[in-house]
Design a protein that fits this description.
This protein is of the alpha/beta class. 53% of the residues lie in helices and 14% in strands. The protein has 2 domains: 200 residues, Rossmann fold, CATH 3.40.50.620; 76 residues, Uridine Diphospho-n-acetylenolpyruvylglucosamine Reductase, domain 3. Strands 3-2-1-4-6-5 form a 6-stranded mixed beta sheet, with helices on both faces. A 4-stranded antiparallel beta sheet has the order 7-10-9-8. GO terms for molecular function: ATP binding; tRNA(Ile)-lysidine synthase activity.
Length: 311
């Protein structure tokens, strides 16, 4: 029955188009592989296996994953080896390298969707990690089911369901040793924090955290829409302070973020402190100097305007 639950989650997304999905060989992605094959509905479904090269036997694991997928019934499996340059932590660097490969295959195959096998448990872990970092609503809203071409059909399914689905389908999934390595914050959350919460606060914490993510995503999406509407009518490099003062802070900070990125700040490089310093030019103005931001972006308040420039 667990495989049937995974199939139900996958079925609405399969309609005769080309679909790619990432497959590590682990429980979640192999359960997704089994379900997609059952629900293929004349779709061309192609697994993408990435060898990150982070373990001595990584090439062997990738080859074994390809073999398992072909045993399941996949005639075509796309494979590539990632070049992981560790710059901001192993997890983030590996993810960046992996998505570069995903993008290459998306360009090549032109699929309708690229599916990812994140589950409800992954969503709950993301919320807790965001709380630990003191993140805002967007980060606490976790992962979206749909993010452009990327689709996560299993966000309502639990890890227990994917594990049971693999057993039901006769699949021996790979256990990534990194999933047990407590050097990684996500592993600490999975192994230590969530079990403590379940034990002391009662069952259902994982589901509650995922539900919180859904609620916050609705709020964050609405605030983003308001900010985008304002920003589309504004002069992005020369913002009016009086107008910004009239905006609620939650929208004002989003407008500033949009303007800073448009001015040239690298994607994902703005922290809460960066935005707070920029926003202080409006809400806590006392003649302070310009604000320096990533990408050599400079914000200044001059004659009632917020001007953005790059060196």
């Amino acid at each position: 029955m667990s495989l049937w639950e995974i199939r139900k989650s996958v079925k609405p997304w399969v309609s005769g188009e080309t679909i790619l999905f990432g497959c590590s060989g682990g429980t979640d992605s192999m359960a997704l592989a089994a379900a997609l094959l059952k629900e293929s509905n004349n779709s061309k479904i192609i697994p993408v296996v990435v060898d990150h090269g982070l373990q001595s036997n990584s090439a062997e694991i990738a080859a074994q994953t390809v073999a398992k997928l072909k045993d399941l019934g996949y005639s075509e499996v796309a494979t590539a080896r990632a070049n992981v340059e560790v710059t901001d932590g192993l997890e983030a660097s590996a993810r960046r390298a992996r998505y570069l490969i995903f993008k290459q295959f998306i360009d090549s195959y032109q699929p309708k969707y690229f599916m990812l096998a994140h589950t409800l448990n992954d969503q709950a872990e993301s919320v807790l990690l965001g709380l630990a970092r003191g993140s805002g609503a967007r980060s606490l809203s976790g992962m979206a089911t749909v993010n452009n071409i990327f689709v996560r059909p299993l966000l309502k399914n639990t890890r227990a369901q994917t594990e049971a689905a693999c057993i039901e389908a006769g699949i021996k999934a790979w256990d990534d040793p990194h999933n047990l390595d407590e050097r990684f914050a996500r592993v600490k959350v999975r192994k230590n924090l969530l079990p403590i919460f379940e034990e002391n606060l009662g069952p259902g914490i994982t589901e509650a955290l995922a539900r919180t993510a859904d609620l916050l995503r609705d709020d964050a999406d609405a605030l983003d829409d308001f900010a985008n509407q304002y920003f589309s009518q504004a002069d992005a490099s020369n913002l009016d302070v009086a107008e910004l003062e009239r905006l609620p802070k939650a929208i004002r900070t989003r407008v500033l973020r949009l303007a800073i990125y448009k001015a040239g700040a690298p994607s994902g490089m703005l922290s809460a402190d960066h935005i707070a310093s920029a926003e202080a030019l409006i809400s806590d103005w006392h003649g302070q100097k310009e604000v320096s931001l990533p990408g050599n972006v400079k914000l200044s308040r001059i004659s009632g305007r917020i001007t953005l420039s790059t060196l």
